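Quick question: what would this complex look like in 3D?
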Amino acid sequence: MRIGELAVTVGVTTRTVRHYHHLGLLPEPERRPNGYRDYTLRHAVVLARIRRLTELGLGLTEVRDVLADDAGRDLAEVLEELDADLARQEAAIRERRERLRALLDREGSLPAEGPVSPELTALLTGMAHGPESPMAARDREVLALIDTVASPESRKRLMAALGSAFETPTAVARAHEVYALLDALADADPDDADDPRVDEAARALADCLPDSLLPETDLAPGLDDSFLRALYADVAPAQAEAIRRAMRMFTERGR
Amino acid sequence: MRIGELAVTVGVTTRTVRHYHHLGLLPEPERRPNGYRDYTLRHAVVLARIRRLTELGLGLTEVRDVLADDAGRDLAEVLEELDADLARQEAAIRERRERLRALLDREGSLPAEGPVSPELTALLTGMAHGPESPMAARDREVLALIDTVASPESRKRLMAALGSAFETPTAVARAHEVYALLDALADADPDDADDPRVDEAARALADCLPDSLLPETDLAPGLDDSFLRALYADVAPAQAEAIRRAMRMFTERGR
DNA sequence: CTTGACCTTGCCGCAACGTCAACGTTTCTA
DNA sequence: TAGAAACGTTGACGTTGCGGCAAGGTCAAG
């Protein structure tokens, strides 16, 4: 048999056959005078065996091992291991599909920040009613960031606290007022340390934060110092100052 | 933020961040005077978004598309498509696991020919009782080959026919006698065209084949001429002649 | 001054082949 | 009998999502 005949009878491509030669899985047959490989029945048998094993999901190196020690008893081990591996893959796929369905079921209400946790989605849609605001947009992004990197437990605690705090339309409206106050500081003179609007915005922001957040030692779980510096660097100086003051006032309130 | 800080806060490796730069997924930030990349909050936000998307199973090119047209509406399409893809993968994994379990449940009785169909496994274990025989071994191999390459329907028909034909111990014993007769021809003089043992073996083999195989127009479904030639080339000339005669006698019996 | 922990660019490796390229051989057909 | 179609040969690059290494430059602490 030539390589093409072998390939079609066993149901693989000629490239695959040559690949197996290269890896040493299938012995090279004799050559005809013209250089063509000349296969025998044994090659077809071995190739079919390789195909059976690969179709089960074995890697070619595992196939080589199985073919090498012809014990036949080692195969069971490999298959057990493979089954466990497939079980893990199946579980992973199922989990991803569940998350996907959770996203797709809330048809059409995908936040612009991309796919986030159900809790955060609820929070974002609840707070969606309000004027356009750069600070609100940044806040949503940061929440999405925290949502992504926090551990599942702290994520749930944080989002639950925020979710219950902004359930009512009045709370949402107050939050948007805070956003507006902060937005107004975008062009504030950084040298005017006593701009009364800074203090006003800080006070409003601190008032806006729910007490349920007080036990949270870390408002941004998983996010360290460098993140906070980046956060403050990303907003206008006066805005950063207002947020810093609000944080101080908020933690003071805890005592 | 430097690249290491960014990486740990978002939960990826620095290599990943640079990779995303290379692919254009994440914009290159400003550089510090020393050449270090200097990231801002926006980079962390985008990187987290990329992580969310990849964790759902999107490829990086799809991530790029989603990030590019910020419609947010296109995302749903991609996710639907992805879900369908995952469903296919899940089905494939389940099928392979079922085959695996079918193999592993018959604990310890894995044929040396490797994992074959349940039907063939039954046939092989049924015929396992008998003396060691090269011809029997080759026959098992060829059956495994056919089992691999035949279409599911013809595979089932063929294996069912053989399985019912060799259910009884007497039928199995007769088959082993045929193997012995064929083995004895291994060193037969190819020039002695009238060796009576050739005809004896052919007759025994033809008698051994069950009538249920007669409707099968093709005894080796999916295997063509070149395979048959390889088969005959793989055995001793006298053995090949005996098998050829047996096939003729068998098909004549059909009329 | 050294050590260690950062950062830089760049290139190879993986798994299992697909897909050219550039060329020789066989076989069918006009 | 010529030419095209359909085989075969070796060799090398492309795919995916990074990991790992080489060969440095930079910076803070002891």
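Answer marked as accepted. The first strand of chain B starts at residue 30 and ends at 31.
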